Amino acid sequence: SSADAVVCRRLVGRTAVITGAGSGIGLATARRLASEGAHVVCGDVDETRGRAAAEGVGGIFVKADVTDPEQVDALFETAYDTYGSVDIAFNNAGISPPDDDSILETGLEAWKRVQEVNLTSVYLCCKAAIPYMRRQGKGSIINTASFVARMGAATSQISYTASKGGVLAMSRELGVQFAREGIRVNALCPGPVNTPLLQELFAKDPERAARRLVHIPLGRFAEADEIAAAVAFLASDDSSFVNATDFLVDGGISGAY
Ligand code: NAD
């Protein structure tokens, strides 16, 4: 964004499918991947925001609820039919934990909903993307986990943490299984990012935001563009030897004591 920024065009001609492209990290990534030359397919359950995102980056919008297998299949199929390949899958849509996500409070229905939107969605998206990538002999999958997949949160968010741990474990295993077929799979583990999801969470509990900042060596939350830059790297051939990792973009949280 600064005037002397290097102009990267690493993704010219590639097709990227992004879920949750209407807001936050997904939206910033749609812009970043498009600026690097990718065709961007914006999936979101929110039609207004998803459509606006697609129009903003000259891509296409596909309304897709990531918990619905048929809609997920249609998302990837539309990408392939429109642009002729599926090179990048950024499986990113997710929801924040329910209000009090302590194991003592979270009910089974709330727990299941978080697993469905945050974890089952990633299973469905990988299942849909991998066959295209196998045929091409090439592909990069980036699944949005979180730094909480690696660390226990003292402020309880048990259903969320468990869902992200699942995303991390699944990404690692898929990365191992499909590497010889040219498909890399990485889990992206952002620290707290200044997005509507986080703002909503901290609006309910401002003290929690202040407590969090103390633990971030960089002394601030990430901006969505900083996460998007990491996704662009993982999507591109610059990361050709990066596979099956938990790719932390957390301002140093996980290194701090
Ligand atoms: P956000 O709320 O700004 O955006 C999420 C998008 O996903 C929205 O456009 C929403 O409409 C869409 N979405 C929600 N449910 C969906 C569904 N069922 N089907 C399709 N789309 C759906 O959130 P964000 O902060 O950009 O978060 C994106 C991802 O990053 C999530 O997986 C989140 O858990 C993860 N994450 C966020 C933070 C953070 O601090 N914001 C930190 C680590 C990880």
UniProtKB/TrEMBL annotation:
<dbReference type="InterPro" id="IPR002347">
    <property type="entry name" value="SDR_fam"/>
</dbReference>
<dbReference type="InterPro" id="IPR036291">
    <property type="entry name" value="NAD(P)-bd_dom_sf"/>
</dbReference>
<dbReference type="GO" id="GO:0016616">
    <property type="term" value="F:oxidoreductase activity, acting on the CH-OH group of donors, NAD or NADP as acceptor"/>
</dbReference>
<comment type="similarity">
    <text>Belongs to the short-chain dehydrogenases/reductases (SDR) family.</text>
</comment>
<protein>
    <submittedName>
        <fullName>3-oxoacyl-ACP reductase</fullName>
    </submittedName>
</protein>
<dbReference type="Pfam" id="PF13561">
    <property type="entry name" value="adh_short_C2"/>
</dbReference>
<keyword id="KW-0560">Oxidoreductase</keyword>
